[in-house]
Amino acid sequence: MTTFSSSWRGLPRPALLGLLLFFCAGFADGALMPFFPLWASSEADIPVGAIGLLFGCYAGGELVAAPLVGGIADRIGRRPVLIVSSIGVGCGFIALFFVHGVAATAIVLVLTGMCESVLHPTILTAIADVTEPSAHPHWFSMARVSSGAGQILGPACGALLALISVDAVFLAAGGMLILGGIVMLAALDETIGSGRATANDHGEREEEEALSALLPAFRDGRLARLLLWVVLFEISGNWIEAVIPLYAQDAGTLSPSGIGTLFAYAAALTVGLQMLVSRFAETRSALWLTAGAGLSTIAAFALLAASPAMLSLIAAVSLCSVAQMLVGPLVPTAVNALAPAARRASYMAASSVATDLKDSLGPSVGTALYALAPRLPWIAGIPLVAIASLGLGVAIGRARPSAATSEASLDAEVARPEKTPIWSSRPAMEEQS
To answer: Is residue 378 part of a domain?
Structure first.
């Protein structure tokens, strides 16, 4: 706790505000997502097999918007993007309280997803702007802790509101994000010119600003391969959040309030252990960490396939939380390492496309499999996780060494601009000797 407190105090102000916005977003997601399947099936009269399609509308809005506005924070700044996107998502969640029917809900979710497409990647970009590259894994872990803290209060608040009306959770979720947007408006300074985004990046800013410039995944093969494995790994992991509410309710194991409490517990586990796991992970290879995450997720699926009992549910969400603690900070760190400083937001936005695909395909596939057989998502997820975790470890491992090399070269050029370049220092030393 002492280390955590000192690290918190040492953060630059924009990064602190970024963590606060992560908390608000985590609260909104925690309050809304566990109860959305219950609301859809009980109050909106939507068939179980079609619930995933509504999740897909939300992610679909993100997918539509990401290529068009994903890199806009590199052009107009982080501050206006964070203000507009957080308030826009908050208004979208509140609108769900007033709409009914599949068509109206789908339209609201698409528009909300379009606003959300730039929220999380821009927060990460702002944090990366004002922190050292070598410390990014630590700060991205802090972001997960902040989001997890919100996801503790979100489901807990949602569980209380669900006793009154499941619709009421939309008001709480939206109100928290609007509050976050107001705080950004009042207190956030622009970070686009901070840190490594110096004069050397000016030429890159003047490059082509066409659509292809906002889609680095199509130009950077390393990023595309990395994100492919991220999508495969996260699709099955998303089934925990999308399928467990239906699985537990149909089995008579948990009530809606109990489901909210279960996900609040999972978030509390992340808050309590994330920094400890991150410290442990500093000395481990990417492949080791992703393999450990894969084994944890496979064990969770095996427990769920065996039984929907309370102990199985608690153990499963615990194991999946540990898996996300291992992998979560690795992905944005690897993406940021591959990104030129003037294209950070674009690269982070491209990585958010992977998350959007996960949020779209994960619930759709998971609930469709569940409609066929309650245990089918867990059985089908085991081989998918095994393959994806190994591929993800290899892809992250290839990104991290190249980042370290690039960073060392940049440091040497900044410190000794008129001396021998670092890549020729060894021959020079040999010549002197």
So the answer is: yes
Number of domains comprising the chain: 1
* Domain ranges, residue 29: 13-192+213-423
Handedness of CA 281, 285, 287, 292 (dihedral sign): negative
Number of Cβ atoms within 10 Å of the Cβ of 322: 22
Tens digits of per-residue pLDDT, 175-189? Answer: 999 999 999 999 988
8 occurs within a structural domain: no
pLDDT score, position 71: 66
Residue 237 pLDDT level (bands cut at 50, 70, 90): confident
Average model confidence (pLDDT) across the chain = 77
> pTM above 0.70?
no
CATH code (residue 399): 1.20.1250.20
| Residue 157 amino acid letter | C
User: In this structure, is residue 417 part of a structural domain?
Assistant: yes
pLDDT tens per residue, range 78-88: 899 999 999 99
Domain-located, residue 281: yes
Give CA–CA dist 110/174, Å, rounded: 15
Segment 35-38 long-range contacts (CB within 8 Å, at least 24 positions apart): 35/158, 35/162, 35/166, 35/169, 35/245, 35/256, 35/259, 35/260, 37/242, 37/245, 37/246, 37/367, 38/162, 38/166, 38/245, 38/249, 38/256, 38/259
Which region among 11-25, 56-70, 76-90, 284-298 has the lowest average model confidence (pLDDT)?
Answer: 56-70
